């Protein structure tokens, strides 16, 4: 109901603008359904396009680059106004991007970048993984306010760029605070079950009462770890503070239940800033910056997590 | 049957020694390894974790041992776990009870087993290829069931199967010990085990000897599917959600490894479920060493590979022969050849 009302209101308020945008056709080449987050990104992109009255042509590449290249070529053939691309890999895009550039169709990259000259795309909208880690680290440093804290860390898949960057960012975030140290760090492969298994071993190796905080590179591992902490007879969120990244619905639920303390959002709304940039570009030709950084918003128990959970649940996470 | 216990003990001695050594390594990196306490209504300790976390592989290797004894292999067990977990989760989220969910999941496992069994036994497709089909397709099926998300649930009965306790002992431990005992009794107290071994040694002659090899082959794949389904339900219940992408991922390899560490030949024939189960415990103990050592995660797979390599080298027949020769050439021992076992009946030697 609410959404409808807002849509109606914005449609009335922005009638001349919406009428102009209604002519716009945009192609969106999505990687595929590799994770809940990506499903949410697809949903939000469709919502954002609908809100602006844009005709969105959606192509699911099923994790294959050749499908994405085919989709882009077909978008060019259809004469779309712009293309959104969430690239599955970083390399091998030069040729197809040149074709788009020759056809004067601007391309905006979503949530990942490519190894191609930046003249070949309009802009890239991504989050800053290091920054996300830094926000998590700073939150914990502020929370401890000078008191010492022994931290255990659940890393993402070894060698993956989110794992490397979120670790680096967190270490930067706690660098200024005395007494904060990471005593154990092990990979939980970004999964719930490994998060739980590794947390169990942390609890035994360090002793649950000697662990003051847990930092997990994603919410899924934190949710698994919460169960391990409960089974060990401790109170997650109180005895052990928990901060993680992504802000998936289940993390909001855990914060609402007092079992988790903070999560940093990796927003699925990459399309919003991208479409804003495109609209500005078409309106008066202002070229955006080559990199648009999305906000890494911090959610704590001060937010209405139950409401956010209800809202995010329907996005397909 | 009085001879069973000593001969079983002799059969699993190498595995027991290896398990003791790996557990010793655990104590080395973490001195309080054997501490077991009672906390929050359950026994709590690293050794308990080894038994609890080893449950999925232990369950898988029960079925896998039987399949491998027939000279087959079942690569689909990891995917079947994902399908069964997804089935159970979707049934409880639709409002069914945990009993229905469990039965539904096990039925799905049996169906997967039947598929594999028919491909192998009736259509005569090589087991490694036949089960590869479901290994690849299964995860997709599981994702169709969960619609690509982690399907979470709050059904207490189902959660108890993975995260609950029976008399203070985590349920998964009770389940795999019970199923292991049941399977061992079923194959050793009846002729079933021998018939399975006969198929593995020579299927054509076993058929000529009157064994209905087709039905028996389908049955071992059914058993494997059932074990995998149970493991899948436990894994899903443990995290209160079915993760179609990751549940049971690569566990088929751990299960095969457990069977091999258990001293069973991949070429079929004689098998021991007990030895395979100890193999599963050895693998989990190796994982435990890695977690407790506090080494950076970049070393995980290398350490695991080195330990597994060491275990397999020690078990290799060549090394066994070498050790025997070294002992035989020692100054104290007599340089005589091993005699036939004295307990053998006189007629046996003429075979």
What is the CATH domain class of chain B?
Answer: Mainly Alpha
Overall radius of gyration of chain A: 21 Å
In what range is the share of β-strand residues of chain A? 15-25%
> What is the fourth-level CATH superfamily of the largest domain in chain A?
Response regulator
Q: Main β-sheet of chain A: number of strands, strand sense, barrel status?
A: 6 strands, parallel
Q: How would you sum up the global shape of chain A?
A: elongated
Q: Could you give the count of β-strands of chain B?
A: 6
Q: What is the typical, i.e. mean, pLDDT of chain A?
A: 90
CATH class of the largest domain in chain A: Alpha Beta
Question: What is the makeup of the main sheet of chain B?
Answer: 2 strands, antiparallel
For the record, give the distance between the C-alpha atoms at the N and C termini of chain B, rounded to a whole number.
23 Å
Could you say what the CATH topology of the largest domain in chain A is called? Rossmann fold
Order of helices and strands of chain B: HEEHHHHHEHEEHHHHEHHHH
Helix content of chain B: 55-70%
Structural class of chain A: alpha/beta
Structural class of chain B: mainly alpha
What is the β-strand count of chain A?
A: 12
Outline of chain B: globular
């Amino acid at each position: 109901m609410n959404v409808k009302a807002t849509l109606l209101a914005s449609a009335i308020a922005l009638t001349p603008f919406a009428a102009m945008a209604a002519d716009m056709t945009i192609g969106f080449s999505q990687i595929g359904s590799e994770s809940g987050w990506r499903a949410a990104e697809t949903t939000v992109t469709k919502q954002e396009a609908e809100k602006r009255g844009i005709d969105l042509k959606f192509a699911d590449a099923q994790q294959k680059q050749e499908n994405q290249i085919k989709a882009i070529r077909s978008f060019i053939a259809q004469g779309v106004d712009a293309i959104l691309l969430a690239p599955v890999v970083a390399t091998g895009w030069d040729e197809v991007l040149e074709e788009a550039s020759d056809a004067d169709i601007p391309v905006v990259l979503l949530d990942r970048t490519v190894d191609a000259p930046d003249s070949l795309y309009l802009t890239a909208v991504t989050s800053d993984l290091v920054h996300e880690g830094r926000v998590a680290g700073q939150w914990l440093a502020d929370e401890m306010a000078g008191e010492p804290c022994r931290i255990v860390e659940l890393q993402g898949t070894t060698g993956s760029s989110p794992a490397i960057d979120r670790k680096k960012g967190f270490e930067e975030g706690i660098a200024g605070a005395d007494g904060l140290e990471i005593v154990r760090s092990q990979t939980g492969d970004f999964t719930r079950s490994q998060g739980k298994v590794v947390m169990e071993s942390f609890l035994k190796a360090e002793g649950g009462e000697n662990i003051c905080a847990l930092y997990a590179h994603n919410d899924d591992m934190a949710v698994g770890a919460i169960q391990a902490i409960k089974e060990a007879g401790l109170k997650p969120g109180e005895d052990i503070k928990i901060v993680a990244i992504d802000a998936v619905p289940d993390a909001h639920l855990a914060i609402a239940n007092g079992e988790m303390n903070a999560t940093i959002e990796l927003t699925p709304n990459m399309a919003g800033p991208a479409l804003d940039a495109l609209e500005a570009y078409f309106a008066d030709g202002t070229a955006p910056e080559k990199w648009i950084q999305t906000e890494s918003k911090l959610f704590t128990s001060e937010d209405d997590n139950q409401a956010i959970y209800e809202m995010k649940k329907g996005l397909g996470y | 049957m009085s001879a069973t216990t000593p001969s079983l003990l002799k059969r699993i001695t190498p595995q027991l020694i290896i398990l003791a050594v790996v557990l010793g390594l655990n104590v080395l990196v973490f001195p309080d390894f054997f501490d077991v306490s009672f906390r929050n209504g359950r026994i709590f300790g690293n050794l308990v974790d080894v038994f609890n976390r080893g449950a999925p592989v232990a369950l898988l290797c029960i079925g896998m041992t039987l399949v491998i004894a027939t000279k087959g292999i079942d690569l689909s067990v990891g995917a079947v776990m994902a399908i069964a977990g997804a089935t159970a989760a979707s049934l409880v989220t639709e409002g069914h009870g945990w009993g229905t969910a469990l039965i539904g999941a096990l039925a799905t496992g049996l169906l997967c087993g039947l598929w594999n069994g028919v491909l192998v036994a009736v259509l005569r497709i090589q087991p490694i290829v036949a089960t590869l089909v479901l290994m690849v397709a299964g995860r997709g099926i599981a994702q169709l069931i969960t619609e690509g998300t982690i399907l979470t649930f709050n059904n207490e009965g189902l959660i108890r199967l993975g995260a609950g306790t029976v008399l203070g002992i985590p349920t998964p431990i009770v389940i795999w010990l019970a199923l292991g005992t049941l399977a061992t009794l079923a194959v050793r107290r009846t002729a079933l085990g021998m018939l399975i071994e006969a198929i593995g040694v020579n299927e054509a002659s076993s058929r000529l000897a009157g064994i209905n090899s087709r039905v028996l082959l389908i049955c071992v794949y059914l058993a494997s599917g059932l074990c995998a389904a149970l493991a899948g339900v436990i894994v899903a219940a443990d995290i209160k959600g079915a993760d179609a992408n990751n549940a049971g991922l690569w566990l088929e390899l751990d299960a095969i490894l457990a069977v091999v560490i258990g001293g069973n030949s991949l070429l079929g024939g004689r098998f021991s479920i007990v030895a395979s189960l100890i193999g599963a415990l050895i693998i989990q103990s190796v994982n435990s060493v890695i977690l407790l050592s506090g080494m950076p995660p970049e070393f995980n797979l290398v350490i695991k590979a080195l330990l597994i390599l060491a275990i397999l080298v020690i078990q290799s027949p060549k090394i066994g022969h070498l050790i025997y020769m070294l002992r035989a050439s020692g100054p104290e021992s007599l340089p005589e050849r091993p005699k036939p076992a004295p307990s053998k009946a006189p007629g046996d030697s003429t075979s």
